[in-house]
Amino acid sequence: MHAFCFPILLRKTVVAIVLISAAAMGPREAFTADPNAPAKRPPNVVLITTDDQGYGDLSCHGNTELRTPALDQLHGESIRLTNFHVDPTCSPTRAALMTGRYSSRTGVWHTIGGRSLLRKDEVTLANVLGRAGYRTAIFGKWHLGDNYPFRPQERGFDESLIHGGGGVGQTPDVWGNDYFDDSYLHNGRKESQTGYCTDVFFRAATKFIESHRDRPFFAYIAPNAPHGPYNVSDSDAQPYRAAGIPSPRAEFYGMIANIDANVGRLLRRLDELKLSENTIVLWMTDNGSAAGKDRSAARKDRPGVGYDGGMRGMKGDEYEGGHRVPCFLRYPAGWQGGRDVSHLTAHIDLLPTLVELCGATAPEGVALDGKSLVQLLKQSALTAWPERTLVVHSQRVETPEKWRKCAVMTDRWRLVNGKELYDIRQDPYQQRDLAADHRDVVAELLREYNTLWTDISTRFGEFCPIELGAEQAISCTLSCHDWHGDDGPWNQALVAKDLRANGFWAVDFVRSGTYRVTLRARPAGVPHLLKAVTAKLRIGDSERSLPVAVDSESIAFELPIAAGQTRLQTWFEEASGAARGAYYVEIERRGE
After folding, report:
1. pLDDT on residue 31
2. Where in the sequence is the domain holding 87, given as residue range(s)?
3. Is 197 part of the annotated catalytic residue set?
């Protein structure tokens, strides 16, 4: 379920756009507006990114089982990027979207295992627009780090209302969240909410828009739906169950129907506030479909198989259905909608595109890998658009492996796993391997991949350490979601099984001092006995052990720790000799 993946735009086709590092910019330094830009208020930006909804999971794309009237209307009013690509799974797409850079460059090529943390030195879209005078907010799924310095409030967002980890009910999320009447983190503090998760996030986004309508705003709405588990109200799922659609697709479609209703309400509210004309509404999804068809089906026409939008593959796959997704852009003041753009584009292009549209000036220092699409958006008859090559990977290892589940793409060709070659124009379902007939094309794409791999792999061995003891986070809770090593229990259902697994956290104690380190099998406040006789803590080369009483729900070590980057690992050892790691570890600096 958790795949490494990263898109790569080949160097010879990159148009250089640069940003200074986040560390070099003050908290609210304003970008200098383009002096040649018209003297008017910059456009607002509403970016909606749904989770695990594929190209075929829309009625406007030919799905006859699903009804999405609001998204169909948005499709009709927008420019549609019909050859738009993302990573095959969640975190890498979000990293590339937020930075305009290859996700592997940013430290993100997985969804768990400490490889979903966005490097501290990356500049985000929220940084860029915030320093251009925008108010910035995120609602829903962040999935780029749950601890300092990776949280949204450290990455340029003025306001945030998010769940933990990669989905509601995952290990870092508030314990017991199940999509209904949950508690989420509002600006870093737990707050109880009322209603279904998608409704909560859109409602909060609408309130933010209403409160900031008198100045430019950036609202990033990223519902966790329709990601599993497929929890949805009966009223949303019942029409699909009644039509004979099997589970979990009926529930998956019900979640999309709920998203569609929320999008419709939001667009109507923009109309009421007279904001629609000067607001860029950008709607996309983060990877291929997770449940829009039966992955095990041998034939497309098998009863109950669902709809794939005419593409091979699903979420996590290197084939087209894993990474080609819908992308709609509506901006009435900027262009006329109702038009398709078929040139090869990707999520890394959206940051430079928005920088140009919003009148922000890209400062110096960090090269973007994406390319502004403004020419494509504003010129309906553009013909002089250069050929590009993109690469995506989908991997399940600590460190990416060359050629593993990869696709090298041009407008015409797809080279899959370095071996299979498909003419995507003539064979969109990727059934006829033409590698033997076009060896020159294969050789050229292999050369480009090799050149790129040399460039992109230089930081694969680095960690993104969680910082401990900083003034911004005197105490924090680590979870096994971010273990390096064994795949930890990445959701609460797996935690409840007390799986025997272990791994280490990459950490950075930013200040020397006395720290209290508390080991738990459940989050604080959730009763659960440790079921161990000994607890062990290792920080770097130093190791300590304590006996565990039979009625213990936690055990704490208090010890001096020197500043610096290191590894932290824990063990709960049973009388039988079996052991597992502490799924949750609280760390608090107590003094110098």
Report:
1. 35
2. 7-378
3. no
